[in-house]
Amino acid sequence: MCLITISKQTAKAFLHQKLIKPKFNTSIELLTNLEAIQLDPVAIIERNHHLTASLRMPSYHNGSLEKVLTDGQAFEYYAQAACLLPINNYPLFADVRRQLTDKLSKELSNLSEVINIILSRLADEGPLPSSAFASTKKVQGGWDTGTATTKESSHALQLLFYTGKIQVTQRKGSMRFFARTEDSIPKKLLLEEEYSSPSERATALQFKFARAYRLFSHDDPRYGWQKHPAQTRKQLHQLAINRNQFTEVSIKGIKRPYAILTEDTEALLSAENDQPTGVDFLSPLDPLLWRRERLMDVYDFYYRWEIYVPDSKRIVGPYGMPILWDGELVGQVSPYFDRSEKKLWIHNIVLNKSFQQTKYTKRRLDKALHALAIRVGATSVGYRN
Length: 385
Known about the structure:
Aminopeptidase; alpha+beta; five-stranded mixed β-sheet
């Protein structure tokens, strides 16, 4: 065991080297290397998974990740949050599904009638869109705060998905198509889940989490992508350190202890002499942004996605995209894509006080915004105060 002490600059260069710089030729290669791509329906300029992918895959076009799902190379489930994941990871989430089954047993029982109808129709008819089960009865769903506004069938579909009884097998825009798990997950993976142990799965998820984050800390509530108590997270973390699978990292000036995969040690040390270049715009759910505390520790950057913040209280805008400038987070832009005009409107640009604006930086920012426009399918860029 050893402790590596690094500067914030080295940490930034390392994260850029691992999470931003690599470029990929295929969607499955991209997904496998990132470990998970977060899904979200908000499409003010484009959906998060498309923005995450197009940043790292120059030839990416909308529909590529959906094809990976449709072809059976990926599945959807909750890791960081709702994510697209490589299909061979399916067994790793067995314990999460079982915990949710126990937690939701009463709700599942209350919805048994509509659940039986859904499962029967999927068995008889194969994959069906969520709209095929539209019911008029309303129940209190996950987003309801008092009044029952969720369709009974929608809530039942979500519970069946949480507990692993059904899978998302296709997406068309915001529409999801569902199928029974036994009809959509390869039998060998179902058998692998049956014969693997909870400790084996927990360890595999812990390392998957580490590969996704690259620089991580055990005080992260999402550590290992299971809801472990703090003490369990600490024990799992220390065990990996004792086995020389993780290496402890101290960032100068930061109290929070970090770690990396031991196999990344050479890359971390070489990052000391690496200076990231380029101007990129990160979607709100980009992997680099997943851990807000890490943003503060490493980049001295506070980020809040303001999509659910009342308009009067927003500082940046509903879809603030952090600006990654030569490896530094220097501010945010708030864009909107007018699809009818194929125009990317920039409603707001908020830069850190320490960022010095010059004619050169303005030209460089404008050029990067035009590149962002091309990424989302816009043909021009406009600015609004």
